[in-house]
Structure formats: structure tokens, C-alpha cells
Design goal:
Layout: E1 2-7, E2 12-19, E3 23-31, H1 33-37, H2 44-66, E4 75-81, H3 85-102, E5 106-110, H4 111-122, E6 130-135, E7 140-145, E8 151-156, H5 162-172, H6 180-187, H7 212-227, H8 234-260, E9 264-268, H9 275-288, E10 291-293, H10 305-316
Parallel strand pairs: 1-4, 4-5, 6-9, 9-10
Antiparallel strand pairs: 1-2, 2-3, 6-7, 7-8
Helix pairs in contact: 2-3, 4-10, 5-7, 5-8, 6-8, 8-9
Length: 338
Amino acid sequence: MLILGIESSCDETAASVCEDFRNIRSSVISTQIEEHKKYGGVVPEIASRRHCENILAVTKQALKEANVTLADLDGIAVTYAPGLIGALLVGVNFAKSLAFAAEKPLIPVHHIAGHIAANYICHKELEPPYLCIVASGAHSHLIEVLSYTEFRVIGRTRDDAAGECFDKCARAMGFPYPGGVHIDKAAQNGNPAAFKLPHPAVAGTEFDFSFSGLKTSVINMLHHADQKGEIIDKNDLSASIQRTISEIITEKTIRAAEEYGYKKIALAGGVSANTGVRTALGTACAKRGFEFYMPELKLCGDNAAMIACQGSYNFAAGITADESLNAVATMPMDNIIY
Ligand code: KG4
Ligand code: ZN
């Protein structure tokens, strides 16, 4: 089975061809980071325009590298939710037209389900059920992966996502967008115990996250230091932020696994590239004898290989869309509407 995947939910235009669920024949990504960097974050209208300019070339390249034609495909999968609405609309409309012209089924894919599926590409033995922690720029979810196409959310962020917290702390320290990776790099040379930062708890729900208190505490610390003319060591602060976020993610994930009886844990989303998070969760799982899975670095951030892979599972489960498919900016994981 050959599925073309298309991704345009944020600032990456991507296309990929996946064979038999998990074998990636091609994965092309055109990133807009350099352009958005100038503004300190993604500018939605610019993102939509760049997707519009690039999506055909990226798709042609993915088909070429996979050595397939449109006629060879079994279906065309596309991210239709959640994300920036203007950005999603470009991918959805393009995929819909392509499916119509090539007379192929159109397969809708939820972006977070795609992030989870990145693990199937890297770990051929991984099968549901398992517990997945998805941490990205827009989401922090603890998810029971019940089957390839069924999910139950047991925890989510009440305010900022983990990636957003990394990025906003990074911006306050003067690092360019997207700052998560810069904190990761600076943390390599810092002392993770240098600053004691809060581990915000959320009243009433054990498995929900809250990262805005951590962000505010970092911003206040930098502000006060600035007012007093003090200099804060960015490496130490980065290492302390990274350690705190890694601890929060690890503690909640392990506790949820114990409570819900999972011995298999996966990590996914852009923040799964973070060295501290990978190590902390990996070590905690190893200590308890849990199986631990995470994507290789190139599949942590937004890409279309994960969409093509999840699209293959959706297609196998009979999930296809008709010509009325629309993009949806917000859609909870445990209530995916196809
Ligand atoms: O999954 P993703 O590419 O986009 C969304 O779906 O949101 O995630 C992007 C997020 C950004 O916040 C980015 O800073 C963060 O992932 N990120 C990292 C690292 N690499 C990417 N955060 C911390 N450490 C990293 N190495
Ligand atoms: Zn993403």
C-alpha cells in the first residue's frame, strides 16, 4: 500500500510517501523558520502564503524521490486538524484537488495522531495499546493509545504547552525563534540545579499540566535581574528550565502509567527532540522495566512521514473523507470527527 502524506498545519510544508504502513519511501520538508524568526514567532498569514507557494514543489519532490507517480498511490492523506486555520486550509484544499484529479481516496489525519505515529516508523515492533506523552509547541497531552485509530486523553495542559514554555522562556533570554532547541544546546553547558523553579500543580486533576507558572517565574527572574543590573547565566538557567520541564513530564507520565497499568510508554511531538526530556523519561522507564519509545530526531518535529504513516492506518480502518472535508483549527484528540 502506498500513501502520500501532506502536512501544512504550522510552519513546515511537507510531503511524504509511505509504503505498507511504516516504510518511508520519501520525506520532504520545506521549513519557514528563517522567515518567522524575524518576527519572533509564526505569522499565520505568511505561513499560509509560503505553503501555497511551496506545496506543489514539495509534493512533486516527494513523489520523485519515492519513485512513484500519482497513479501508483492508494490514497492521499492530509493533516486537517488541529493547527493554524489558514495553513491547514492550503494542505486540505491541495490534497482534496489532488485526490479528485487522480481519482484516489482522501484520508483525513489528526496532527497529534500523526506525531504519535512517528514512533511506528522508528520502532517496527511498537503496537497499541500504550501510553503516549505528546509535547509540542501547541499541545501537551497524556494519551492512551487504545488502537491505531482510537485515543483517550487522560491529561492535557491547562494553559501553555511544554514547547510554548520552552519558546517563551527562550525568547525572554534573547534566543531566536523557535527557542526550544537553543535552550537544549545551552543546557549542555549549564548546571541544572542552579535555579529552583516551580513545578506547578493543577488542582483537581492529577494528570493535567500547567506550564505558564514556570514561564512567568523565569520571565520575572530575568526581569528582576535586569532591573538590578545582574547577569543571569543563560546556560545555567537553560539547564534549570530543561530539568524542570523534564521532571514535570516524567513524573506525570510515570504516575499515569502506574495508575492506568501501562508498561509501554512513547514520547512524541516537537519537544520529544529535547535531550533532557528524552533522557529523564527514558531513565525513569528503564528503572521500572517499562518499554520506552521515542522518534528519531528528524521525526520529532513536524513532517509528512508521520502523516502518511497514520494515514495508512486510518485508511486500513476505513477512515476516508469526501469532497466536503474542511480544515479545523481545534479538535480534541479523544473526539476526532472525520
Ligand atoms: O511538533 P512541533 O514541531 O510543532 C507543533 O505541532 O507544535 O513542535 C514544535 C515545538 C516548538 O515549541 C519547539 O521549540 C519545540 O517543539 N522543540 C524543542 C526542541 N526541538 C523542538 N523544545 C525543546 N528542545 C528541543 N530540542
Ligand atoms: Zn506538530
